[in-house]
């Protein structure tokens, strides 16, 4: 479990008897003396940070007020320190706080802040704090949006990363935006993941996907995905890919950004959706996009946004060993 989550779970809820408006119990984050991890009177998590303002471009970053996120600056706070009985800090801080009562969102907030804090220097400037607030606000704003991708589709992409030959390379090659043409890109190689829930290999393609630019090689990873009560949850795969990112804060934030952008407001319930891991493992096949059935590239003038459904069962899967030597992405992706 993430260090901040463990520390937060060990904090006591502060007494509601104090007449101080901003009262927390808290602990200084190890190796980050300007940051305090805190719990408010309602058991909600907050990160309090004090920074110097002299010589900064701006004196106070903008405050943020979202449905589940509060950011305010230069607020006088009272912190009862967890490891120093009776020791009280009263000081002005910037407050970054999760306002939800949901435990799942508490953990998401702490996981995200953990990655953000790791990416920052110990001596934090106002400008860096402002950038931090922007990242956090974007993620929490996305939590209120409609999903952009199916749970099944995201599960399949995470599965391909988690069980790849070289998962770290696959994670680095993963698209930053769900609107990108292919799911994975490295050099002149691309991998597109297609999942099917009806035990066929009939997948939807955009015309532009089916005809990649000259000099580009594309593999289609076709995977059969079925819901199963004892299967692997999307949340488990999400956490596994977080582990692959390790201490790389940029990769951790990439994982959070992609998953939250894909799922939006459905993220919490989506994490519990389970699919048959063994069917996925046994059914995963890769096809060269040039060998699959495709509509003609030459479309009548005035026709755009062409999409079609191709049945890959009419194509022969690739020989993995011969394709591994073609470049780093295929080598990373192809297992066994």
Strand-helix topology:
Blueprint: H1 3-9, E1 23-29, E2 32-39, E3 45-49, E4 64-65, E5 69-81, E6 88-98, H2 103-118, H3 126-142, H4 151-162, H5 167-173, E7 184-186, E8 189-196, E9 202-206, H6 207-210, E10 217-224, E11 227-233, H7 234-245, H8 249-263, H9 267-270, E12 274-275, H10 277-283, E13 285-288, E14 307-311, H11 320-324, H12 328-333
The SSE order reads HEEEEEEHHHHEEEHEEHHHEHEEHH
Count helical runs.
12
Strand ordering within the main sheet: 1-2-3-6-5
Radius of gyration: 24 Å
Distance between the termini: 30 Å
Task: Work out the number of β strands.
Answer: 14
Model description:
This protein folds into two domains: 3-142, no CATH class; 151-333, no CATH class. Helix 7 (234-245) runs antiparallel to helix 8 (249-263). It contains twelve helices and 14 strands. It has helices at residues 3-9, 103-118, 126-142, 151-162, 167-173, 207-210, 234-245, 249-263, 267-270, 277-283, 320-324, 328-333, and strands spanning 23-29, 32-39, 45-49, 64-65, 69-81, 88-98, 184-186, 189-196, 202-206, 217-224, 227-233, 274-275, 285-288, 307-311. The strands form four sheets. Strands 1-2-3-6-5 form a five-stranded mixed β-barrel. The chain has a four-stranded mixed β-sheet with strand order 7-8-10-13. Strands 9-14 form a two-stranded antiparallel sheet. Helix content is 33%, strand content 26%. Strand 1 and strand 2 form a beta hairpin. It is α+β, with helices and mostly antiparallel strands.
């Amino acid at each position: 479990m993430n260090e901040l989550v463990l520390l937060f779970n060990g904090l006591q809820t502060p007494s509601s008897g104090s007449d101080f408006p901003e009262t927390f119990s808290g602990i200084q984050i190890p190796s980050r003396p300007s940051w305090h991890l805190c719990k408010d009177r309602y058991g909600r998590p907050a990160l309090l940070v004090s920074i110097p303002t002299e010589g900064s471009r701006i004196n106070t970053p903008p405050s943020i007020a979202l449905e589940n996120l509060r950011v305010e600056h230069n607020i006088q706070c009272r912190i009862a320190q967890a490891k120093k009985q009776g020791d009280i800090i009263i000081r002005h801080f910037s407050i970054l706080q999760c306002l939800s009562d949901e435990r799942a969102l508490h953990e998401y907030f702490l996981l995200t802040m953990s990655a953000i804090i790791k990416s920052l220097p110990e001596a934090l400037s106002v400008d860096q704090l402002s950038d931090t607030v922007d990242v956090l606000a974007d993620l929490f704003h996305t939590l209120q949006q409609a999903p952009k991708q199916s749970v099944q589709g995201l599960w399949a992409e995470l599965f391909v990363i988690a069980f790849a030959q070289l998962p770290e390379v696959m994670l680095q090659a993963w698209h930053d935006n769900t609107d990108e043409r292919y799911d994975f890109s490295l050099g002149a190689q691309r991998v597109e993941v297609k999942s099917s829930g009806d035990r066929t290999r009939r997948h939807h393609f955009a015309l532009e996907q089916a005809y990649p630019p000259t000099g580009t090689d594309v593999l289609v990873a076709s995977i059969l995905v079925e819901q199963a009560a004892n299967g692997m949850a999307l949340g488990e795969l999400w956490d596994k890919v977080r582990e692959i990112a390790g201490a790389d804060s940029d990769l951790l934030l990439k994982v959070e950004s992609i998953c939250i952008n894909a799922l939006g407001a459905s993220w919490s319930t989506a994490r519990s959706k389970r699919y048959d891991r063994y069917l996925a493992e046994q059914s995963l096949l890769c096809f060269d996009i040039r060998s699959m059935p495709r509509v003609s590239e030459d479309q009548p003038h005035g026709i755009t946004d062409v999409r079609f459904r191709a049945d890959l069962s009419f194509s022969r899967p690739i020989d993995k060993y011969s394709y591994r030597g073609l470049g780093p992405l295929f080598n990373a992706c192809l297992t066994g």
